[in-house]
Design a protein that fits this description.
4-stranded antiparallel beta sheet, 7-stranded mixed beta sheet
Length: about 120
């Protein structure tokens, strides 16, 4: 069973950039497509981005297109979410997700394994 640990959240100002990291353990990292979701107070969990096992294919949700970039370093067993031009509306708990298979579709369409989340607060 894969375990996920997110880091990199915090309090930033509008317009700042932030990079989140998620380290995986307990499973072969390249067996998993990986992704990022977020959940704002009072809202449902929202898909942001997913990446396949090799890092060669990515898929983004509407909220992430143009500002967020997902990447992975298989040697470090880590997936990243780089976020630019942050807005107060990006305030949320950000969750890393591991899919049941190597393609990003297993993150988007299946039931992924979740991390505990890291909180991002964007002040105006």
């Amino acid at each position: 069973q894969v375990q996920l640990a997110e880091s990199g959240g915090g309090l930033v100002q509008a317009g700042d950039s932030l990079t989140l990291s998620c380290v995986a353990s307990g499973s072969t990292f390249t067996d998993h497509g990986m992704g990022w979701f977020r959940q704002a107070p009072g809202k449902e969990r929202e898909f942001l981005a997913a990446i396949n096992w090799a890092g060669s294919s990515t898929y983004y949700g509407d909220s992430a297109k143009g500002r967020f970039t997902i990447s992975r370093d298989n040697a470090k067993r880590t997936v990243y979410l780089q976020m630019n031009s942050l807005k107060p509306g990006d305030t949320a708990v950000y969750y890393c997700a591991a899919g049941s298979g190597p393609q990003w579709s297993t993150v988007v369409q299946g039931t992924p394994t979740w991390g505990q989340g890291t909180r991002v607060t964007v002040s105006s």
